[in-house]
Write a structure and sequence with these properties.
Structural class: alpha/beta
CATH architecture of one domain: 3-Layer(aba) Sandwich
Family: Belongs to the class I-like SAM-binding methyltransferase superfamily. RNA M5U methyltransferase family.
Order of helices and strands: EHHHHEHEEEEEEEEEEHEHEHEEHEHEE
Oligomer: single chain
Radius of gyration: 25 Å
Strand content: 15-25%
Strand order of the largest sheet: 3-18-19-17-16-13-14-15
Keywords: Methyltransferase, S-adenosyl-L-methionine, Transferase
Helix content: 10-25%
InterPro entries: MeTrfase_TrmA_AS (IPR030390), MeTrfase_TrmA_CS (IPR030391), SAM-dependent_MTases_sf (IPR029063), tRNA_(uracil-5-)_MeTrfase (IPR025795), U5_MeTrfase_fam (IPR010280)
GO molecular function, one term: tRNA (uracil(54)-C5)-methyltransferase activity, S-adenosyl methionine-dependent
Largest sheet: 8 strands, mixed
CATH topology of one domain: Rossmann fold
Distance between the termini: 55 Å
Length: 522
């Protein structure tokens, strides 16, 4: 039950940059920097009616904490006071939410008085705010929670919410991201479309990385020969806001594992499975102490279900089907983690590039996949275009993309994968007709840098589809593309046609986003 409106609980806003699972970490591609997974959370806007009371509570806690600080803590605080919050980072998102919570006037006053606003960003430090609950919410329904570790484990945040409510909150995340980070006037931002739901809301992850505790020094001499687990050994996922491992019970035997402090569990089709095969081979490599494949029991979600195997060797090859296309890639490489949504995900991109009712003379015929990786977009969309080019800086990824083209019997005349150069990404596709070309970009969480954006604008494709796992850097980049295309005054400019979220991670606060830009006359 929600507390009555008159209660005044202690609300803790805590920032910890070690939260994991809900965000995907992509390798930096096209030569641009990336960052560690940021735990970016969005909160509903609150009426700053009680800003004065909240500030009094905030000031009280600051004063008490200062009196208790040791000399090293005071030195650290002095150092942190000069810290500049990185734009578009998790800290920046939280700061803007603090402004929404307390009101701009209260925040300006606190800054003028020299309040220690950086303290929430110190490791394991908290700020306590006394807030009044002005109204209760009917969104929470604890009967929906299906995991006994919910609230302890950092993996999920939304299990207590009806699924449609989750989708609505993620739509609001996109609304706020473009309001706060695109630096665009409201009239240039289209209405954010409803979030596309995931066919699977549970059991959708194709990759897990359980953590386990390091061996205590006192146990170094112990030997476990029967495969049992000592009482002190914990294996599972990091707790919410901590590095502590939450012990998850195991239903299957885990073989001896001596490397690192985490495991890789990746779902794969068995070796021998190929496109359009209705009788796939299920031959597995023999199990070994290190483990390469272990058969998994999976729910049958299609009329022609395929048994899956679990890959535990990072050097092994994973096979994954997206519609009629099969992909092979190293188990350690990046690939989208929710296979159930990839067909509607890629189909939506195709439909945005080739909308119904487009005159034949205006139809896009060429596609450039500028962050192609192992070829997900280039190969799944190839049948809709005359020519497709995938561009990557990572030579290894290009090799896997070419291999996937061969596996799926796609000719080089139709799809080509090219190792690009950061200084001139689009050098190899200069013969593509700009008015009939679409470019897909899917950068890492850090987003694209100004050098790439400048090249993208100068290339001048008719359509740009921006796929992002970080809606805040996407909003920033979209704003830059629109403004810089106007500043060039080349007779045309980019406009934002649509933005839509996709729920690749149900039960979490994360939302993927697809933004579509069109080139129009100035």
């Amino acid at each position: 039950m929600d507390p009555p409106a008159t209660s005044q609980p202690q609300v803790r806003l805590q920032m910890d940059d070690h939260e994991e699972v809900q965000h995907i970490d992509k390798k930096p591609r096209l030569g641009f920097a990336t960052e560690e997974n940021d735990a970016i959370h969005e909160y509903d806007d609150h009426d700053p009616e009680s800003s004065k009371e909240a500030m009094e509570g905030l000031t009280s806690v600051f004063d008490q904490s200062r009196s208790k600080r040791s000399r090293p803590q005071k030195k650290l605080t002095k150092k942190m006071k000069s810290m500049v919050i990185e734009p578009y980072s998790a800290q920046d998102v939280i700061f803007r939410d603090v402004v929404s919570l307390l009101g701009q006037e209260a925040v300006d006053k606190a800054i003028q008085e020299g309040k220690d606003w950086e303290s929430p960003f110190q490791f394991r430090e908290e700020v306590e705010l006394t807030a009044s609950i002005l109204s209760s919410t009917e969104m929470r329904d604890d009967s929906l929670i299906r995991c006994k570790y919910f609230g302890q484990c950092a993996g999920c945040q939304y299990q207590m919410l009806p699924y449609q409510t989750q989708l609505g909150l993620k739509q609001e995340v996109l609304v706020k991201a473009y309001q706060n980070f695109s630096d665009l006037p409201q009239e240039l931002i289209p209405a954010i479309s409803p979030t596309m739901s995931s066919p699977l809301q549970y059991g959708y992850r194709t990759k897990l990385t359980p953590h386990f505790d390091r061996l205590p020094k006192a146990k170094m001499a112990d030997t476990v020969l029967d495969g049992s687990r000592p009482d002190w050994f914990k294996i599972g996922f990091n707790g919410s806001g901590t590095r502590t491992v939450i012990d998850i019970e195991r239903r299957r035997r885990l073989y001896t594992y001596k490397q690192g402090v985490s495991l890789l569990l990746r779902e794969s089709l068995p070796t021998g499975t190929r496109p359009h095969s209705h009788s796939p081979s299920f031959g597995l490599r023999p199990s070994s102490p290190m483990g390469t494949f272990t058969r998994l029991e999976v729910a049958e979600t299609t009329s022609d279900p395929e048994k899956k195997v679990c890959v535990t060797d990072q050097r092994a090859t994973v096979l994954e089907r997206v519609g009629d296309t099969v992909f092979e890639y190293p188990a350690s490489a990046f690939f989208q983690n929710n296979n159930s949504i990839l067909v509607p995900f890629t189909s939506y991109i195709r439909d945005m590039i080739l909308p119904e009712g487009t005159p034949p003379q205006s139809k896009v015929t060429h596609l450039v996949d500028a962050y192609c990786g192992n070829g997900l977009f280039a190969l799944t969309l190839a049948s809709s275009f005359q020519r497709v080019a995938g561009i990557e800086l990572d030579v290894s990824a290009i090799q896997w993309a070419n291999r996937n083209a061969q596996v799926n019997k796609v000719s080089e005349d139709k799809v080509s994968f090219i190792a690009g150069h950061a200084a001139n990404i689009f050098e190899t596709v200069q013969d593509f007709p700009r008015d009939k070309t679409a470019v897909i970009i899917d950068p890492p969480r850090k987003g694209s840098d100004e050098r790439f954006i400048e090249q993208l604008i100068l290339f001048g494709s008719q359509t740009v589809v921006y796929v992002s796992c970080n809606v805040h850097t996407q909003a920033r980049d979209i704003g830059m593309i629109i403004k810089q295309s106007e500043d060039l005054k080349r007779g045309n400019k980019y406009v934002l046609d649509s933005v839509r979220g996709f729920d690749l991670f149900p039960q979490t606060a994360h939302v993927e986003s697809i933004a579509v830009l069109r080139l129009v006359p100035s």
